[in-house]
Amino acid sequence: MSETVLLIGGGGREHAIARELETSEADLYACAGNRNPGIARIADGFETLETTNPKAVLEFAEDVDATIAVVGPEAPLQAGVADELESAGIYAFGPKEAEARIETDKAFQRRFMAEHDIPGCPDFETFDDMDAACDFVDEYDGDLAIKPAGLTGGKGVKVIGDQVTAEEGKEYIRESDYDRIVLEERLIGEEFTVQAFVANGDVRTAPAVQDHKRAYEGDEGPNTGGMGSYSDATTALPFMTDADYDDAVSIIEATVEALEDYRGILYGQFMLTSEGPKVIEFNARFGDPEAMNTLPVLETDFLDILTAARDGDSLPALEFAPQATVCKYAVPEGYPTDPEAGAKVQVDEESAGDALLYYASVDERDDGIYTTTSRSFAVVGRADSITEAETIAEDALEVAGEEGLHMRHDIGKPELVQQRIDHVEELRGE
Ligand code: AMP
Ligand code: GLY
Protein backbone atom coordinates (compact mmCIF):
# COMPACT_ATOMS: atom_id res chain seq x y z
CA MET A 1 0.00 0.00 0.00
CA SER A 2 1.36 3.41 -0.80
CA GLU A 3 1.65 5.73 2.17
CA THR A 4 0.82 9.38 2.52
CA VAL A 5 2.70 11.00 5.35
CA LEU A 6 1.66 14.26 6.94
CA LEU A 7 4.54 16.10 8.60
CA ILE A 8 3.59 18.65 11.25
CA GLY A 9 5.99 21.49 12.04
CA GLY A 10 8.15 23.94 10.11
CA GLY A 11 11.56 24.06 11.78
CA GLY A 12 15.01 22.70 10.97
CA ARG A 13 14.10 19.42 12.66
CA GLU A 14 11.12 19.01 10.37
CA HIS A 15 13.15 19.88 7.29
CA ALA A 16 15.50 17.04 8.32
CA ILE A 17 12.51 14.68 8.70
CA ALA A 18 11.17 15.78 5.30
CA ARG A 19 14.53 14.95 3.70
CA GLU A 20 14.33 11.43 5.12
CA LEU A 21 10.91 10.94 3.58
CA GLU A 22 11.92 12.52 0.27
CA THR A 23 13.87 9.42 -0.67
CA SER A 24 11.25 6.97 0.54
CA GLU A 25 8.20 5.67 -1.25
CA ALA A 26 5.75 7.92 0.60
CA ASP A 27 3.85 10.93 -0.66
CA LEU A 28 4.64 13.77 1.71
CA TYR A 29 2.41 16.65 2.82
CA ALA A 30 3.36 19.19 5.44
CA CYS A 31 1.81 21.88 7.57
CA ALA A 32 3.26 24.53 9.87
CA GLY A 33 2.66 28.04 11.12
CA ASN A 34 5.44 29.35 8.91
CA ARG A 35 6.10 28.44 5.30
CA ASN A 36 9.44 26.63 5.47
CA PRO A 37 10.90 26.84 1.94
CA GLY A 38 12.95 23.66 2.33
CA ILE A 39 9.98 21.55 3.36
CA ALA A 40 7.62 23.21 0.88
CA ARG A 41 9.96 22.24 -1.96
CA ILE A 42 10.06 18.59 -0.94
CA ALA A 43 6.40 18.13 -0.07
CA ASP A 44 3.59 17.54 -2.55
CA GLY A 45 1.56 20.08 -0.62
CA PHE A 46 2.27 22.56 2.16
CA GLU A 47 -0.42 24.23 4.23
CA THR A 48 0.11 27.14 6.57
CA LEU A 49 -2.03 26.56 9.64
CA GLU A 50 -2.02 26.73 13.41
CA THR A 51 -0.46 23.38 14.34
CA THR A 52 -1.67 23.66 17.95
CA ASN A 53 -5.24 23.52 16.65
CA PRO A 54 -5.93 19.76 16.47
CA LYS A 55 -9.07 20.22 14.35
CA ALA A 56 -7.21 22.27 11.74
CA VAL A 57 -4.47 19.63 11.54
CA LEU A 58 -7.00 16.82 11.27
CA GLU A 59 -8.87 18.63 8.52
CA PHE A 60 -5.71 18.93 6.44
CA ALA A 61 -4.77 15.31 7.21
CA GLU A 62 -8.16 14.18 5.93
CA ASP A 63 -7.95 16.42 2.86
CA VAL A 64 -4.71 14.77 1.79
CA ASP A 65 -5.78 11.24 2.89
CA ALA A 66 -2.84 10.91 5.25
CA THR A 67 -2.11 7.35 6.36
CA ILE A 68 0.58 8.33 8.89
CA ALA A 69 1.36 11.60 10.65
CA VAL A 70 4.69 12.64 12.13
CA VAL A 71 4.52 15.33 14.77
CA GLY A 72 7.79 17.30 14.93
CA PRO A 73 7.47 19.90 17.72
CA GLU A 74 6.22 19.65 21.30
CA ALA A 75 3.47 22.29 21.14
CA PRO A 76 1.12 20.25 18.91
CA LEU A 77 1.72 17.19 21.10
CA GLN A 78 0.73 19.21 24.15
CA ALA A 79 -2.32 20.47 22.32
CA GLY A 80 -3.50 16.88 21.68
CA VAL A 81 -2.86 16.68 17.93
CA ALA A 82 -1.85 13.01 18.18
CA ASP A 83 -5.05 12.25 20.13
CA GLU A 84 -7.21 14.01 17.53
CA LEU A 85 -5.59 12.21 14.60
CA GLU A 86 -5.83 8.86 16.37
CA SER A 87 -9.48 9.30 17.14
CA ALA A 88 -10.05 9.82 13.41
CA GLY A 89 -8.08 6.66 12.62
CA ILE A 90 -4.87 8.31 11.40
CA TYR A 91 -1.74 6.87 12.99
CA ALA A 92 0.39 9.55 14.63
CA PHE A 93 4.05 8.88 15.34
CA GLY A 94 4.21 11.00 18.45
CA PRO A 95 2.77 10.57 21.93
CA LYS A 96 -0.70 11.53 23.01
CA GLU A 97 -1.12 14.55 25.21
CA ALA A 98 -1.00 12.46 28.40
CA GLU A 99 2.26 10.72 27.51
CA ALA A 100 3.80 13.94 26.18
CA ARG A 101 3.63 15.23 29.75
CA ILE A 102 7.00 13.58 30.21
CA GLU A 103 8.18 16.74 28.40
CA THR A 104 5.40 19.26 28.79
CA ASP A 105 5.15 19.09 32.59
CA LYS A 106 8.52 19.03 34.31
CA ALA A 107 6.93 18.52 37.74
CA PHE A 108 5.12 15.44 36.44
CA GLN A 109 8.32 14.26 34.81
CA ARG A 110 10.36 14.39 38.03
CA ARG A 111 7.62 12.76 40.10
CA PHE A 112 7.25 10.07 37.47
CA MET A 113 10.96 9.29 37.64
CA ALA A 114 10.86 9.18 41.43
CA GLU A 115 7.73 7.01 41.60
CA HIS A 116 9.12 4.48 39.14
CA ASP A 117 12.62 4.47 40.62
CA ILE A 118 14.11 5.46 37.29
CA PRO A 119 17.84 5.96 37.79
CA GLY A 120 19.50 9.33 37.15
CA CYS A 121 16.91 11.59 38.82
CA PRO A 122 18.39 14.60 40.65
CA ASP A 123 17.02 15.75 44.04
CA PHE A 124 14.00 17.95 43.38
CA GLU A 125 10.95 19.64 44.91
CA THR A 126 7.93 21.04 43.09
CA PHE A 127 6.18 24.27 44.12
CA ASP A 128 3.04 26.17 43.34
CA ASP A 129 3.66 28.66 46.15
CA MET A 130 6.44 30.98 45.03
CA ASP A 131 7.19 32.23 48.56
CA ALA A 132 7.74 28.65 49.67
CA ALA A 133 10.02 28.18 46.65
CA CYS A 134 12.10 31.21 47.70
CA ASP A 135 12.36 29.83 51.25
CA PHE A 136 13.59 26.57 49.78
CA VAL A 137 16.30 28.44 47.87
CA ASP A 138 17.43 29.97 51.18
CA GLU A 139 17.38 26.68 53.05
CA TYR A 140 18.86 24.38 50.44
CA ASP A 141 22.46 23.41 50.94
CA GLY A 142 23.87 23.88 47.45
CA ASP A 143 22.94 25.42 44.11
CA LEU A 144 19.58 24.83 42.46
CA ALA A 145 18.20 24.88 38.95
CA ILE A 146 14.93 26.83 38.70
CA LYS A 147 12.60 25.32 36.12
CA PRO A 148 9.12 26.45 35.12
CA ALA A 149 6.98 23.30 35.00
CA GLY A 150 5.50 24.11 31.58
CA LEU A 151 7.00 24.58 28.11
CA THR A 152 9.27 27.59 27.56
CA GLY A 153 11.04 26.67 24.32
CA GLY A 154 14.15 25.75 26.29
CA LYS A 155 14.52 29.30 27.56
CA GLY A 156 12.91 29.26 31.03
CA VAL A 157 15.54 27.53 33.14
CA LYS A 158 17.86 29.57 35.38
CA VAL A 159 20.71 27.86 37.18
CA ILE A 160 21.90 29.36 40.45
CA GLY A 161 25.67 29.53 40.66
CA ASP A 162 25.90 29.52 36.86
CA GLN A 163 23.66 32.12 35.21
CA VAL A 164 22.25 33.78 38.33
CA THR A 165 23.01 34.31 42.03
CA ALA A 166 20.59 32.99 44.68
CA GLU A 167 19.16 36.52 45.08
CA GLU A 168 18.62 36.90 41.32
CA GLY A 169 17.10 33.42 41.27
CA LYS A 170 14.55 34.37 43.91
CA GLU A 171 13.76 37.57 42.06
CA TYR A 172 13.18 35.49 38.92
CA ILE A 173 10.85 33.17 40.86
CA ARG A 174 8.89 36.09 42.30
CA GLU A 175 8.67 38.20 39.15
CA SER A 176 7.98 35.58 36.51
CA ASP A 177 4.38 34.60 36.23
CA TYR A 178 4.84 30.87 36.60
CA ASP A 179 2.11 28.82 38.34
CA ARG A 180 4.36 25.93 39.15
CA ILE A 181 8.09 25.45 39.24
CA VAL A 182 10.57 22.70 39.95
CA LEU A 183 13.64 23.39 42.02
CA GLU A 184 16.30 20.77 41.61
CA GLU A 185 19.86 20.01 42.46
CA ARG A 186 22.27 21.74 40.12
CA LEU A 187 24.06 19.07 38.13
CA ILE A 188 27.65 19.65 37.15
CA GLY A 189 29.17 17.99 34.15
CA GLU A 190 28.81 17.80 30.40
CA GLU A 191 25.48 17.57 28.64
CA PHE A 192 24.56 15.08 25.94
CA THR A 193 21.43 13.91 24.18
CA VAL A 194 20.28 10.41 23.31
CA GLN A 195 17.21 10.08 21.10
CA ALA A 196 15.22 6.87 20.85
CA PHE A 197 12.62 5.65 18.37
CA VAL A 198 9.92 4.04 20.47
CA ALA A 199 6.86 1.97 19.56
CA ASN A 200 5.25 -1.34 20.48
CA GLY A 201 7.56 -1.61 23.49
CA ASP A 202 10.70 -1.39 21.33
CA VAL A 203 13.41 1.20 21.94
CA ARG A 204 15.97 1.95 19.21
CA THR A 205 18.58 4.51 20.15
CA ALA A 206 20.66 6.85 18.01
CA PRO A 207 24.26 8.01 18.61
CA ALA A 208 24.78 10.66 21.29
CA VAL A 209 24.76 14.34 20.33
CA GLN A 210 25.91 17.44 22.20
CA ASP A 211 23.83 20.58 21.79
CA HIS A 212 24.94 24.09 22.77
CA LYS A 213 22.16 25.91 24.58
CA ARG A 214 23.85 29.19 25.32
CA ALA A 215 23.53 32.01 22.80
CA TYR A 216 27.14 33.16 22.61
CA GLU A 217 30.55 31.66 22.05
CA GLY A 218 32.29 30.11 25.03
CA ASP A 219 28.87 29.10 26.47
CA GLU A 220 27.99 32.63 27.51
CA GLY A 221 24.66 34.41 27.36
CA PRO A 222 21.06 33.31 27.72
CA ASN A 223 19.71 29.82 27.03
CA THR A 224 18.31 29.27 23.56
CA GLY A 225 16.50 26.47 21.75
CA GLY A 226 20.00 25.28 20.80
CA MET A 227 22.67 27.02 18.71
CA GLY A 228 24.27 23.94 17.20
CA SER A 229 25.41 20.45 17.93
CA TYR A 230 27.80 17.69 17.03
CA SER A 231 27.96 13.91 17.01
CA ASP A 232 30.91 11.58 16.51
CA ALA A 233 31.48 8.74 14.08
CA THR A 234 30.96 6.41 17.06
CA THR A 235 27.94 5.99 19.32
CA ALA A 236 29.41 7.95 22.22
CA LEU A 237 30.99 11.44 22.23
CA PRO A 238 34.70 12.14 22.81
CA PHE A 239 34.17 13.04 26.48
CA MET A 240 32.17 9.91 27.32
CA THR A 241 32.80 6.19 27.54
CA ASP A 242 30.62 3.54 25.91
CA ALA A 243 29.49 2.63 29.44
CA ASP A 244 28.18 6.20 29.94
CA TYR A 245 26.20 5.87 26.71
CA ASP A 246 24.84 2.49 27.81
CA ASP A 247 23.80 3.95 31.18
CA ALA A 248 21.85 6.67 29.37
CA VAL A 249 20.17 4.06 27.16
CA SER A 250 19.20 2.05 30.27
CA ILE A 251 17.54 5.15 31.73
CA ILE A 252 15.56 5.66 28.52
CA GLU A 253 14.55 2.00 28.48
CA ALA A 254 13.39 2.13 32.10
CA THR A 255 11.36 5.23 31.29
CA VAL A 256 9.69 3.66 28.26
CA GLU A 257 8.82 0.61 30.31
CA ALA A 258 7.22 2.75 33.00
CA LEU A 259 5.31 4.83 30.43
CA GLU A 260 3.76 1.59 29.10
CA ASP A 261 2.17 2.92 25.93
CA TYR A 262 4.63 5.47 24.64
CA ARG A 263 5.22 5.95 20.95
CA GLY A 264 7.26 8.39 18.92
CA ILE A 265 10.65 9.78 19.79
CA LEU A 266 11.80 9.86 23.39
CA TYR A 267 14.67 12.29 23.79
CA GLY A 268 16.81 12.09 26.90
CA GLN A 269 18.97 15.04 27.81
CA PHE A 270 21.65 13.98 30.25
CA MET A 271 24.33 15.57 32.35
CA LEU A 272 27.41 13.38 32.55
CA THR A 273 28.35 13.98 36.18
CA SER A 274 31.09 12.47 38.34
CA GLU A 275 28.46 9.87 39.28
CA GLY A 276 27.50 9.06 35.67
CA PRO A 277 24.59 10.31 33.56
CA LYS A 278 21.73 12.15 35.29
CA VAL A 279 18.56 13.27 33.53
CA ILE A 280 18.20 16.99 32.80
CA GLU A 281 14.95 16.44 30.96
CA PHE A 282 12.99 14.26 28.60
CA ASN A 283 11.48 15.51 25.39
CA ALA A 284 8.66 13.81 23.54
CA ARG A 285 10.13 14.44 20.06
CA PHE A 286 13.42 14.77 18.21
CA GLY A 287 15.75 17.50 19.40
CA ASP A 288 16.21 20.57 17.30
CA PRO A 289 19.12 20.80 16.33
CA GLU A 290 19.89 17.17 17.26
CA ALA A 291 17.60 15.74 14.55
CA MET A 292 19.91 17.36 12.01
CA ASN A 293 22.85 15.35 13.38
CA THR A 294 20.98 12.08 13.64
CA LEU A 295 18.80 11.84 10.54
CA PRO A 296 21.51 12.57 7.94
CA VAL A 297 23.47 9.52 9.16
CA LEU A 298 20.43 7.25 9.59
CA GLU A 299 20.70 4.58 6.93
CA THR A 300 17.52 2.71 7.85
CA ASP A 301 14.52 3.84 5.84
CA PHE A 302 12.54 6.21 8.04
CA LEU A 303 9.28 5.13 6.39
CA ASP A 304 10.00 1.49 7.35
CA ILE A 305 10.28 2.61 10.99
CA LEU A 306 6.98 4.49 10.74
CA THR A 307 5.05 1.66 9.12
CA ALA A 308 6.44 -0.93 11.55
CA ALA A 309 5.39 1.32 14.42
CA ARG A 310 1.91 1.72 13.02
CA ASP A 311 1.42 -1.92 12.13
CA GLY A 312 2.34 -3.10 15.62
CA ASP A 313 5.50 -4.78 14.33
CA SER A 314 8.90 -4.87 15.91
CA LEU A 315 10.89 -1.77 14.93
CA PRO A 316 13.76 -2.45 12.53
CA ALA A 317 17.29 -2.38 13.96
CA LEU A 318 18.75 1.03 13.15
CA GLU A 319 21.84 1.47 11.01
CA PHE A 320 23.86 4.68 11.22
CA ALA A 321 26.69 5.68 8.90
CA PRO A 322 29.94 5.87 10.92
CA GLN A 323 30.28 9.59 10.33
CA ALA A 324 30.66 12.61 12.57
CA THR A 325 28.33 15.58 12.10
CA VAL A 326 28.47 19.24 13.08
CA CYS A 327 25.39 21.45 12.92
CA LYS A 328 25.49 25.24 13.23
CA TYR A 329 22.46 27.46 13.42
CA ALA A 330 22.11 30.98 12.06
CA VAL A 331 19.63 32.88 14.23
CA PRO A 332 18.14 36.38 14.00
CA GLU A 333 20.20 39.17 15.53
CA GLY A 334 19.10 39.61 19.14
CA TYR A 335 17.85 36.02 19.54
CA PRO A 336 16.62 34.80 22.01
CA THR A 337 15.81 37.84 24.16
CA ASP A 338 15.03 40.41 21.48
CA PRO A 339 15.03 38.69 18.10
CA GLU A 340 14.64 40.72 14.97
CA ALA A 341 11.69 39.15 13.16
CA GLY A 342 10.68 40.16 9.64
CA ALA A 343 14.21 40.75 8.37
CA LYS A 344 14.90 39.50 4.88
CA VAL A 345 17.54 36.76 4.76
CA GLN A 346 19.72 35.90 1.81
CA VAL A 347 20.52 32.24 1.59
CA ASP A 348 22.83 31.32 -1.23
CA GLU A 349 22.08 27.62 -1.44
CA GLU A 350 24.72 26.97 -4.08
CA SER A 351 27.37 28.08 -1.62
CA ALA A 352 26.55 25.45 0.98
CA GLY A 353 29.19 23.27 -0.72
CA ASP A 354 29.41 19.84 0.87
CA ALA A 355 27.21 20.89 3.78
CA LEU A 356 23.52 20.15 4.15
CA LEU A 357 21.32 23.20 4.49
CA TYR A 358 18.20 23.09 6.61
CA TYR A 359 15.67 25.88 6.71
CA ALA A 360 14.13 26.49 10.11
CA SER A 361 11.67 29.07 11.42
CA VAL A 362 11.82 31.38 8.45
CA ASP A 363 8.82 32.37 6.43
CA GLU A 364 8.82 32.26 2.66
CA ARG A 365 6.79 35.01 1.04
CA ASP A 366 6.39 36.05 -2.58
CA ASP A 367 9.39 38.35 -2.49
CA GLY A 368 11.79 36.37 -0.37
CA ILE A 369 12.55 34.63 2.90
CA TYR A 370 12.05 36.43 6.21
CA THR A 371 13.16 35.78 9.78
CA THR A 372 10.68 34.99 12.55
CA THR A 373 11.47 35.27 16.26
CA SER A 374 13.09 31.83 16.20
CA ARG A 375 16.12 30.20 14.59
CA SER A 376 16.55 30.77 10.84
CA PHE A 377 18.55 28.02 9.18
CA ALA A 378 21.27 25.51 9.91
CA VAL A 379 24.16 23.97 8.05
CA VAL A 380 25.43 20.47 8.75
CA GLY A 381 28.81 19.02 7.86
CA ARG A 382 29.29 15.25 7.71
CA ALA A 383 32.73 13.62 7.64
CA ASP A 384 34.95 10.97 9.21
CA SER A 385 35.85 13.22 12.15
CA ILE A 386 34.23 16.04 14.09
CA THR A 387 37.04 18.37 13.03
CA GLU A 388 36.46 17.74 9.32
CA ALA A 389 32.70 18.01 9.72
CA GLU A 390 33.17 21.31 11.55
CA THR A 391 35.22 22.74 8.71
CA ILE A 392 32.54 21.80 6.20
CA ALA A 393 29.81 23.42 8.32
CA GLU A 394 31.89 26.52 8.98
CA ASP A 395 32.74 27.01 5.31
CA ALA A 396 29.06 26.78 4.46
CA LEU A 397 28.18 29.40 7.09
CA GLU A 398 30.76 31.84 5.83
CA VAL A 399 29.27 31.96 2.38
CA ALA A 400 25.63 31.85 3.47
CA GLY A 401 25.39 35.60 4.05
CA GLU A 402 25.60 36.72 7.67
CA GLU A 403 23.60 39.91 7.32
CA GLY A 404 21.27 40.29 10.29
CA LEU A 405 22.11 36.82 11.57
CA HIS A 406 24.15 35.50 14.46
CA MET A 407 25.91 32.16 14.85
CA ARG A 408 28.34 30.39 17.16
CA HIS A 409 31.50 29.64 15.26
CA ASP A 410 33.03 27.71 18.16
CA ILE A 411 30.68 24.70 18.02
CA GLY A 412 32.54 21.52 17.07
CA LYS A 413 35.96 23.22 16.96
CA PRO A 414 38.80 21.11 18.44
CA GLU A 415 39.39 23.57 21.33
CA LEU A 416 35.79 23.40 22.52
CA VAL A 417 35.60 19.61 22.20
CA GLN A 418 38.88 19.35 24.13
CA GLN A 419 37.46 21.56 26.89
CA ARG A 420 34.59 19.08 27.25
CA ILE A 421 37.04 16.17 27.52
CA ASP A 422 39.16 18.04 30.10
CA HIS A 423 36.08 18.96 32.08
CA VAL A 424 34.91 15.37 32.45
CA GLU A 425 38.45 14.18 33.26
CA GLU A 426 38.65 16.80 35.97
CA LEU A 427 35.27 15.76 37.42
CA ARG A 428 36.29 12.14 37.43
CA GLY A 429 39.61 13.03 39.04
CA GLU A 430 41.59 11.43 36.23
P1 AMP B 1 15.90 22.42 29.84
O1 AMP B 1 14.92 23.45 29.39
O2 AMP B 1 15.38 21.52 30.92
O3 AMP B 1 16.55 21.70 28.69
O4 AMP B 1 17.08 23.18 30.52
C1 AMP B 1 17.83 24.12 29.81
C2 AMP B 1 19.25 24.08 30.26
O5 AMP B 1 19.34 24.37 31.65
C3 AMP B 1 19.89 22.71 30.14
O6 AMP B 1 20.39 22.49 28.86
C4 AMP B 1 20.97 22.79 31.15
O7 AMP B 1 22.10 23.47 30.64
C5 AMP B 1 20.38 23.65 32.23
N1 AMP B 1 19.86 22.80 33.31
C6 AMP B 1 18.62 22.27 33.43
N2 AMP B 1 18.51 21.55 34.55
C7 AMP B 1 19.71 21.61 35.18
C8 AMP B 1 20.24 21.08 36.40
N3 AMP B 1 19.51 20.32 37.23
N4 AMP B 1 21.52 21.38 36.69
C9 AMP B 1 22.28 22.14 35.89
N5 AMP B 1 21.84 22.67 34.74
C10 AMP B 1 20.57 22.42 34.38
N1 GLY C 1 17.96 20.88 21.51
C1 GLY C 1 17.09 20.94 22.59
C2 GLY C 1 15.68 20.67 22.29
O1 GLY C 1 15.32 20.29 21.19
O2 GLY C 1 14.89 20.83 23.17
Automatic annotation (TrEMBL):
**What are the record keywords, sorted?**
ATP-binding, Ligase, Magnesium, Manganese, Nucleotide-binding, Purine biosynthesis
Give the enzyme's EC designation: 6.3.4.13
Instruction: Tell me which domain of life the UniProt entry assigns to the organism this sequence originates from.
Output: Archaea
Which cofactor names does the annotation list?
Mg(2+); Mn(2+)
Instruction: Read off the PROSITE patterns from this record.
Output: ATP_GRASP (PS50975), GARS (PS00184)
Q: Which InterPro entries match?
A: ATP-grasp, ATP_grasp_subdomain_1, PreATP-grasp_dom_sf, PRibGlycinamid_synth_ATP-grasp, PRibGlycinamide_synth, PRibGlycinamide_synth_C-dom, PRibGlycinamide_synth_C_sf, PRibGlycinamide_synth_CS
What SMART domains does the database record attribute to this sequence?
GARS_A, GARS_C
> What reaction does this enzyme carry out catalytically?
5-phospho-beta-D-ribosylamine + glycine + ATP = N(1)-(5-phospho-beta-D-ribosyl)glycinamide + ADP + phosphate + H(+)
* One term of GO molecular function: phosphoribosylamine-glycine ligase activity
A Gene Ontology biological process annotation? purine nucleobase biosynthetic process
Q: In which pathway does it act?
A: Purine metabolism; IMP biosynthesis via de novo pathway; N(1)-(5-phospho-D-ribosyl)glycinamide from 5-phospho-alpha-D-ribose 1-diphosphate: step 2/2
Q: What is this protein called?
A: Phosphoribosylamine--glycine ligase
The organism that produces this protein has a lineage beginning with: Archaea, Methanobacteriati, Methanobacteriota, Stenosarchaea group, Halobacteria
